[in-house]
Amino acid sequence: MSLIRALSKELQARSDDSLRALFSARPDLISPGVPDFAALAARASGRVSVQRALERLNRPEMQVLETLHLCTNTDTGHSASAPMLKKLINGATLASIEKMLHSLQELALVHRAEPPHGAAPPAGSKQRYYLPVGSLKDVIGIYPAGLGRSYTELVRLQPAFAQRVVQLVGELHRSGASISPAATPMEAALSLQHWTATPESLRQILATAPERTPALLARFGNWAMGAVPQAQRRASVLHEAADVGPVDWLLARGLLVPLDAAHVELPHSVGVSLRGGFVIEKFALTPPVPRLGATSAALRRNAALGAIAETLRLVGELLYCVREQPLVTLRSGGVGVRELKRLADGLRIEMHDAGVLAELCALSGLIRLDVDSSAWVQPAQLEWLTLPRQEQWLWLVNAWLASERAPSLVGQPVNGQAGVPALHRGAAGSTINALSAEAQRPDAPVVRKRILEILAELTEEAAAHDGQAPVLDAAAVLERADWTQPRMARRFSSLIRGVLAEAELLGLIGSGALSQIGAAIAAEQPDAAMGILGEHLPAALNHVLLQADLTAVAPGYLAPELTEKLLTMADAEGQGPATIYRFSVSSVRRALDAGQDAQAMLDFLGLHSATAIPQPLKYLIEDTAARHARLRVGSAASFIQSDDETALLELLNTPGAAGLGLVRIAPTVLVSHAAPRETAQLLRSLGLSPAVEESEAGGVRLRRTTAAPGSVRPVYSAPRTAPPEADVDAQLAVLRSERNAGGGASGHPAAPPGSEEATQLGLETLQRAIRLKQRVVMNVVDGMGNAVRETVVPVAVNGGRVRVFDPEKETERVLSIHRIIDVEAAEELLQ
User: What's this model's pTM, rounded to 2 decimal places?
Assistant: First the structure.
């Protein structure tokens, strides 16, 4: 029976509560809704859906599922039971495996099956047999449980090894090894497989290995592939030197098989023997308990509140810097090093911190990319600036949680090194620019949410004493994440340190411990977090201390409006909340250029100073204002000069000349923003006869640019959670109606062409035929729209296309899957 049809029959027999639990655990199964159980089974067997489901499994569930995959054969229907799995999982009990299999069955990842041939259970036994869904093989990959492929499979797939393996076995036999000689590559593979089949035989083989060989093999404990230089070099047991290295020693005996010039694989039988004959060497139903340090609750609270106040201050200053001078982007996208250094100098922080802060502002929508200038600017109307401090903080946190960007990746290599076991690594590539497309991570919201949940779990489990809080580092969080969701371990490892640093920046972590505010956010209680923050976060100050050395000292965190006004008339110095603002001739002139006058500045400082205005500061402002504007600089494209002052005055008041933007700068001189020839043409239309004097043609060129591909979006959506209850009820009603009507998979009706069930059944048939090298009969639509039945041998399925071999024409060709109406195994038709 087809695996999809078997799963459909099992789903039809389930209760509504069981189906409801399935939809809650796998919400993609009813998005959009399915018409019947056959379509539901087809979707549950789909590769993408199975991959999402596997990402939710914890380590013991994945270990049981991978062991079941290795013990079964979906092509022949060879199933496995809990007692069979127990023999291959070290430390597991029969009850625990049965429980895991039941859980996997509830998730529709495995289903009940008939016992394998010759393995019928004893009379009266309640032993149950299982098969995984058909797409599991493709989802898990070629190294289930971290074990390599068998020697026979490597001989079939690696031509270079197939040519070498017979000679290799012959050399081992002549050297005295207890291995049978072989005449064909497949016989040689079976000899190697038998030679390394048990832990005892492998220990005897390794007894004469070089000293560093066990340490080298230990690197393959969790993954079967590794990288070595010159992996395909010739090595022979008959010509070994006394100081032979461990890699050459293993290659000469076939214990490592070269895949290409730089990679090797540890065969399946060798890996199992290294694990003592088990597929799973370590099995535990409870997660590991990390050793955690402790900090005081008061220190945690103060560190978190300090980080929040500092972040809000820096965000305010960054917005001022961007408003004064936008962040220009590179042609390749993102903000360059020079521009980022200018921002860092303005904020008086490190470049990496400035990049992270710019990313945080961009993903929160506080700055946006202007398509006309290709620069990051502040929106004209920004609500964030007018909100209370706790609401400003929640705005940043919500945007960070939902963002598909990873701010802490700024400055890291573009091509990060993978986490697979490797014996040699290459050089890293270029670094990631701030606000560039390379910092995009679609899985970032899921990773952040899960990390906060793990922090809350570990904090609750630590049960620290009163007044104490557990310190959580990246290693402890990663260890728990690797147990709860091993399929996402690599994603966690690449983002964990950055996420923790960003959480500390936002006050979710304080002094290395999850803060009360962070715990509230992890529990999805933002109102509680805002309440805690409003109670403990110091109010923003609205005054400074003016000093005789022409400085103003902020005694704490200032209100954003006060900070912005101070920055227009003084230069900030130092770091932290107690910022020093230094007044100088250039800073006062900057305020005068912005439209302020001396009296307005003195009134402002008098209103916001806790001390009297020092006389040196008063003299500085007044003297600078007195000298200001004696010379004026402006822009003009042309001028009009005439000795007749009356004529110029009449021209200035003429309505027809309003388009020139005339300004009188002297009794006999007017200036215009229009070009000389344009000005002369308009004056002639008014009946005047000007003479054009152009020393040099001039003008301003405007260029319109668009955002670079992959530019940052300011707003992101949160990850999808469980489906709405109404959708679940509606889907259950549809399925219940089919069950009551007696439909379903019991009679195995033909799937409608083009339906989800037909597509998955066709893919299942193709993939089974590829593995078994069987012929199939396909009904294919040709270029003229005609349906043609063909008997072919499928070779590979990938990217919506299937490569087939036509035995009659002895040619290979590629067909689009959407052109295939239906497909059936030719052997089944003959029966």
Answer: 0.73
